[in-house]
Amino acid sequence: MPTTKLSQDDVLQVLKRIAAPDGRGNVVSAGLVSDIAIQGSTVMFALLTTPQHIKTMEILRGAVEKAVLGIPGVEKAMVALTAERAAPPTGASTPAQPRGNAVPGIRYLVAVASGKGGVGKSTTAINLALGLHSLGLRVAVLDADVYGPSMPKLFGLTGKPESSDAEGKKMKPMSRYGVELMSIGFLVAEDTPMIWRGPMVMSALTQLLRETEWGETDVMIIDMPPGTGDAQLTLAQQTPLAGAVIVSTPQDLALIDARKGLNMFRKVNVPVIGIVENMSYFVCTKCGERHEIFGHGGAKEEAERLGVPFLGEVPLDQDVRLRSDRGEPVVATAPDSKHAAIYRDIARQVWASLQSGGLSRPAPRIVLENEL
Ligand code: ADP
After folding, report:
1. Could you tell me the residue ranges of all domains in the chain?
2. What is the homologous superfamily of the domain 8-83 according to CATH?
3. How many CA atoms lie within 13 A of 195 on its CB side?
4. Which of 17, 144, 154, 335 is most buried per CB count within 10 Å?
5. In this prediction, what percent of the chain has a pLDDT beyond 90?
6. Whose CA is nearest to atom 22 of ligand 1?
7. C-alpha to C-alpha distance for 108 and 331, rounded to whole angstroms
8. In whole angstroms, what is the distance from residue 43 CA to residue 192 CA?
9. What's the 143 CA to ligand 1 centre distance in angstroms?
10. Ligand 1 centroid to 220 CA: how many Å?
């Protein structure tokens, strides 16, 4: 354990001793280093690059990581290459950007996203993953919700991932209910307040995605950070996503946010597989009557208007919440329930959509890491 508190300055001092690749000054003075985030003994930042300079920058990344690991008190250095640019002004159309290199062993990456927090995105993500698993598929979950990583809790998993090699360069994913999981929540203390900026998010997630020893995987579900800010846009842009599922409640406000989510994926050419309406209605446990608390059918109408498939409606149900809180997701622990059937149906549609030609397109070009 470190005895003194690490500061950004400690890291900057070391980085200032590393020459920039063009020989002019150091990596800091050349403006190649993003903001530096420190969580306990973990240091995270990104090095800016362009696709043309990936090879040189990859070598530099290795050297930088090593130098940072040499700082007393640093146990983990997460340095990623990023080609992040400033976000385009709202409404401006962005030309199709090349996205991250494919992840070895993983066939389809699917983002589960929402325009705002608290709509049941993570609950949908885990149950969709389990629904896909129930179809006989090999499934993994990447908890990319760095602002509130809830997957460890939803899976009922604690502890830290183990290294899968002697040098500690790769991590083994955690696993439960037949699904593999990696989450930033395993790596930082639950009560650590996290302030993440765009490049930081990308830096941490690139490492979680690419430095985990995933097994052969048919579908990886990525639980996105909620919202449509720069971090989300960069993530959508630089991850080789096969498609995205958008979760919304029927409330108007959430739908406006959902539309923003839809536009975000469209902007970066990620196909939207469909919209899920969560907390759609409530069936009274006493009288059996169906109550449409938030109004109902908004997401379905909106999906039709926007020309996006509507994947299904998940009722508000106390059992779903109670099981989630206990780390016993409904699809795995109450497979005969109505909810489990709804999630499995959504999973079937997602899988069919992934396999249909409609979503296939040319392999994305490399932007990030490891083009060696
Ligand atoms: P998000 O990822 O969008 O922030 P969560 O999946 O964490 O949302 O869900 C927020 C809260 O709502 C959690 O307590 C969860 O258990 C609950 N919840 C989500 N979906 C449902 C549902 N269909 N019925 C009842 N509770 C739900």
Report:
1. 8-83, 106-366
2. Fe-S cluster assembly (FSCA) (3.30.300.130)
3. 4
4. 144
5. 37
6. 316
7. 21
8. 14
9. 15
10. 21
* Choice between 140 and 57, residue whose per-residue pLDDT is larger: 140
Q: Provide the mean pLDDT of the chain.
A: 82
More confident site: 299 or 103: 103
**Tokens in use for 121?**
């995105």
CB atoms within 10 A of CB 240: 21
Distance 122 CA to ligand 1 centre (A): 7
| DSSP states along 216-281 | SEEEEEEEPPSS-SHHHHHHHHHS--SEEEEEE-SSHHHHHHHHHHHHHHHHTT--EEEEEEEEEE
Mean pLDDT of 80-87: 57
CATH number of the domain at 106-366, out of 3.40.50.300, 3.40.50.2300, 3.30.428.10, 3.30.230.10? 3.40.50.300
Q: How far, in whole angstroms, is CA 178 from its chain's centroid?
A: 20
Residue 53's pLDDT band, with cuts at 50, 70 and 90, is confident
Looking at beta carbons, which pairs linking 354-359 to residues 24 or more positions away fall under 8 Å? 354/108, 354/110, 354/219, 354/242, 354/243, 354/273, 358/271, 359/242, 359/243, 359/271, 359/273
Taking CA atoms only, the protein residue closest to ligand 1 atom 20 is 120
- Quick check: 367 and 52 in contact, CB under 8 A? no
Q: Which ligand 1 atom is the nearest neighbour of the CA of 279? A: 23
The whole-model pTM stands at 0.72
pLDDT tens digits along 165-211: 777 778 999 999 999 999 988 877 666 666 666 677 788 888 889 88
User: Which residues does residue 223 pair with via DSSP β-bridges, in sequence order?
Assistant: 112, 143
Question: Which residues contact residue 197 at a Cβ distance below 8 angstroms, ignoring those fewer than 6 apart?
Answer: 34, 35, 37, 231
Q: For the segment 3-41, what is each residue's pLDDT rounded down to a tens digit?
A: 568 888 999 999 999 988 877 788 888 888 877 878 788
Higher pLDDT, 44 or 275: 275
